Amino acid sequence: MATEVKALVFEVPALTYAYEALEPYIDAQTMHLHHDKHHQAYVDNANAAIAKAPELAGKSGEEILSNLAAVPEAVRGALRNNAGGHVNHSMFWSIMGPNAGGAPSGLIGEAIVQTFGDFAQFQEKLNDAGVKQFGSGWTWLALGSGGLQVLSTPNQDNPISQGLQPIMGNDVWEHAYYLKYQNRRAEYLKAWWNVVNWAEVNKRYEAALKK
């Protein structure tokens, strides 16, 4: 009798570019470790938590994070951290790419100028939030009822849990930059702009406006 194989709830998405494609700003070794090891660990732990709460099996990571109070207490912490890690990193890989960077255009470019004055001021604000995030976490551009805002979150927390829609975010966990930049988080934050895929960020913004 064949053993039934259950489909995984979460899976690490494949990169759409080579591991070395973000050089010299993000090195290939960091990408291998970050994508293949760290993200995989979040997925494995999230799937293990879902196995203990099968009523959540049909929900996306975003749905889980948007209403953590509805998640059984026994697995709430595990899913906050690990479904959060999966959602955050899936976004992270998608908004980066080779031959990227520069200033944003389209609706997101217009909204950034309207909200922050100009692109440079927005960069400074997002970088500052990343530098000042104590310990591990993320720095975000998110959309709320009052428009765009910059914020940071600890660990793998996502703005979705605050009723916001994340448009883009940068990972300021040490595993995202330490092999290349060591303790120079500010240098990493500045270099990261060279790999931002604004076309993808704009898609996320346009989708968020429709929600």
Shape: globular
Oligomer: single chain
Tell me the helix content: 40-55%
Number of strands: 3
Main sheet record: 3 strands, antiparallel
List keywords for this structure.
minor pseudopilin epsh fold; three-stranded antiparallel β-sheet; 211 residues; mainly alpha; Helix Hairpins; disordered N terminus; globular; 11% strand; 2 domains; 3 strands
Description:
The chain starts with 27 loop residues before the first helix and ends with a helix. The protein has helices at 28-51, 61-66, 73-94, 106-116, 119-132, 178-181, 185-192, 198-209, and strands at residues 137-144, 147-154, 165-171. Helix content is 48%, strand content 11%. The protein has a 3-stranded antiparallel beta sheet, with helices on both faces. It folds into 2 domains: 27-94, Helix Hairpins (Orthogonal Bundle), CATH 1.10.287; 106-209, minor pseudopilin epsh fold (3-Layer(bab) Sandwich). With 211 residues, the protein is mainly alpha-helical.
